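Predict the 3D structure for this chain.
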Amino acid sequence: MEYRRLGKSGLKVSEIALGAWLTYGGSAGEETTRACVKTAVDHGINFIDLADVYAHGEAERIVGKVIKELGLRRQDLVLSSKVFFPMSDNVNDQGLSRKHIMESVENSLRRLGTDYLDIYFCHRYDLETPVEEVVRAMDDLVHQGKVLYWGTSVWSADQIEAAVSAAQMFNAYAPQVEQPRYNMLDRHIEPEIMPAATRHGMGLVVFSPLAQGLLTGKYNEGIPADSRAARSHWLDRDLTEENIAKARRLTELAQGLGLTTAQLALAWLLRRPELSAVITGASRAGHVEANVKASGARLSPDVQEQIAGILDNDPLAWSGQ
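Done. Predicted structure below.
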């Protein structure tokens, strides 16, 4: 496993991270969670990404329980969680108000069984709360030692700029990391969000690096009955004939390189020095073992050129930049 700094901070995270979205506490039970976490740690993953809203708190609770049962040292892990989405019908149990942030972090710490979070993300931008209020609340959490670094998730470049400006105004801790969706088929962060984060020394830890399975090749010949696409609408936007055709060509290229389609997709992302980590999901230990093999993989300029030809979706080229 290779490790990267979280932006310009001194914190180092495994470039392959383990994420709990749509799995632990939900579709994946405690036994599966234990196997995946153990396999991840055994293979050098130190970064586990969570959110309070994942399985409505169950992801945090189960991962926290598994960490304790496995006897893992807290200092060996980088744990993150998030705040924003409603956790009850209470009108104040949502958003990024100071009240919700302060109460939510306590709930996340209790469920995880820890005294602090390494990273705490604002899960979306809150149009109803002044960004100054958000920044000062996060700054207070850092001073209290409950959060070591804070970040944003799915924020626009302008929203990131506003947060950094507010932090400078109050001499407060600024966001250190942004967590956006980013993969071969969704490159929307490249024109504005990626440059803004990099300009302010923020790392990027990206989710959905495999387009929820589309970039594993599992849909190349149709939709398996037990797949996520068959059970939900998460892939409705991405599961197009054009994207499936691209996935098939990427699979052929990967096989020629001795890689899986997923490993090729992860290595393609990690070629970007702006990224600190890619957050991968896993519903069984074998997925973790396969994903970690992308760490340290290098794609030659020729291979990158072939991938560019297959994707044909460079947002900078299309915008004329």
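The chain has a mean pLDDT of 93.
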